Request: fold
Amino acid sequence: MIELVSVSKTFNPGRHNEYAAVREVSLGFEPGRLTALRGPSGSGKTTLLSLIGLLARPTAGRVRLDGRDVSGLPERFMTELRRAHIGFVFQSFNLIRGLSVLDNVLVPALPTGRPHAQARQRALELLDFLGLGARADHPVQSLSGGEAQRTAIARALINDPQVVIADEPTANLDSELSRQVLGILATLRDQGRTVILSSHDPLVFELGIADRVLAMHDGRLTDA
Amino acid sequence: MIPWLQRHLGLLDYTVAALARRKGRNAGLLAAYTLIVALLASLLLQGEALRATAEDLLAGAPEVVVQRLTAGRHDLMPAERLDALAGLRGVSRVEGRLWGYHFDAAIGANYTLLVPATDAPAPGTARVGAALARARGLAAGDVLSLRTYAGTPLAFRIAGILDEGGELVSADLMLVSEADFRALFNFPAGHYTDLALAVTNPAEVRRVAQKVLERLPDSRVILREEMRRTYASVFDWRQGLLLAVSVVALMAFALLAWDKAAGLSAEERREIGILKAVGWDSGDVMAMKLWEGLLVSLLAFLLGYVLAWVHVFHFDAAVFRPVLQGWSVLYPQFRLAPRVDVMQVATLFCLTVLPYVAATLVPVWRAATSDPDEVLRA
Reply:
């Protein structure tokens, strides 16, 4: 369970270009639920996701993981927690060009010290589950948008995280592929994972896959 | 397998895959790096082998040589001085040596003529060095005619060619009988070129030299140790000259490596951002880059050293031979004895591997410590 308590994030504090991206947000995310964040560009969705996903530290407030305050941990410990508990799916896929689909999926598992054969087996299972088994050895730059996003999902799942965070996962996909990706995220939720996504794609909300929809504006949560 | 090892194997695996993505660029870098290492290693290996060969040859040289001086120049040594030194305490043997140089206008080369203390050729015959034999097209049984100082020709039948093993010093050597030597140079009887002394206790060489100077104040004493130092300085000076040139090449390469590393491309920065966002910490990124630097530099070091070894010991250091060995009409041909100096290998390693690893690692540190959420905001 992830919990945010009065969390704020300010960039360039004390400077002329100081900017408060998230203000006083308190939230909890339970396992087996899919939460969708909506809001216009610049509303603070991505920054909030980075705080939930332990990619950034809040300027004020607390982030708790399973009841433990993790917002002040040193980078190494924060990374270990993120690696073990959280998987990320990015808007622009963020795959590493030149590497194969399989190698990309394996990237988060490499520093864990997990046996390579075991990680490879898990990666191949995930690729099969996502319909990419036949593409495992292909370079990622040869993939279609839908395949690239499914590869990114497989990568997010390689360390078997309890929480999956997707930032605008359908932004670069057409409607059919968006449905496919949202379906996969719903399946992950059905498997008991916490799924949090941000989007301003109407399809996300029309499909009704979200258990909860939160709206953001100017860094604050507003009524959905 | 322990997780620590698994982690590094995983990072190494990624590094190899990442290097393979830019085959052309990395192969070019590796080739340039290998050549630099090969250049430096060739110089060091050849210098060391030349010094070693010279030392082996000097091992047979007399411990003390005494020359007579007249007005500060080398003069002939009267035979009676043999007796003056024979009784000197600590001296086990004194020999008069006969040697000199002969300029052969036919090929424009100088020969070193020597009357060996033992096994001297019979009058009318000579044994010659391999380079001299090559230059004059001589084989055993042929006749070589030299012009004496009296202006008359003196013929030598070639009794044999000297062993190539010591060609570094015997290349231009011509061993003749005492009678022929004196006839050729119009060398007065009862005189020698210089005297060679054998010393009973090697620790007393300097003491003996001092006594020689007390007894024969118009002499110059040359110790084997001094000759060794002279050889060493000659090779060191030449090697230093080439090293100075090579260091420029090394610095150019270091600048290239620094430039490559410091100017991390947008693609590399993006990659580091992704790695951090998907769960790598700064230490993982640094370890991966360390592996990258080590893989490239160790491979270049290994390839460069092997290349240098083949160049020096199988192709007789064809590139640096004229500079390191010197110039001559009678060029010695000989195989250098392979010798590895651990300190030298360590120095070369420190000069080539460490700067590259540091040059690639230091700038990466800045990118590796960036916030992992940058990739989300990009």
Notes: The longest strand of chain A covers residues 19-29. The two ends of chain A are 22 Å apart (CA to CA). Chain A has a mean pLDDT of 92.
